Amino acid sequence: MECAKTCPSAPPEPGSVLLGVVAGKGQLAYLKPNPPVTPELLVSLTQQGVPIENRIRFAGPCMEHHCVQWQGAAGTGRCGLIDHAIDVLAIQSGAETLPHCGIRDTCRWFAQHRREACAACPEIIRRPSGS
Q1: What is the pLDDT of residues 67-81, one digit of tens each?
Q2: What is the spatial distance between Cα 123 and Cα 84, in angstroms, rounded to a whole number?
Q3: pTM (two decimals)
Q4: Burial of 51 (0-12, 13-18, 19+ CB in 10 A)
Q5: Omega into 122 within 30° of 0, i.e. cis?
Q6: Cβ distance 60 to 6 under 8 Å?
Q7: Fewest beta carbons within 10 Å, which of 7, 11, 38, 102?
Q8: What is the pLDDT of residues 47-59, one digit of tens each?
């Protein structure tokens, strides 16, 4: 039986975990182990003024066909976000050194693209500046 997949670009909500901190354009400082998101943590993070999605990446259960990024049928589809990111970023090969990621074993993106997903992952933020 396949284990449930984890979305590395989940919304900031209780039940998700902190995947990493955006350290700059194309840079993500991964946290391992991944601290759980609590209502109190969300309140403290939102008090900074900058949208937390621009500063922190969250991971949570992959919602598959319930997600707007999902392409294909339930159980047989894939995450279109990572497919699109790899295409737009023109990633031809994977990350030379894999980051110390706390969700790799269950990561939806890694399951689809292996090292190429790890090369694209730091480039993706949930809500780009100006949105």
Answers
A1: 999 998 777 899 999
A2: 12
A3: 0.88
A4: middle
A5: no
A6: yes
A7: 38
A8: 867 788 888 999 9
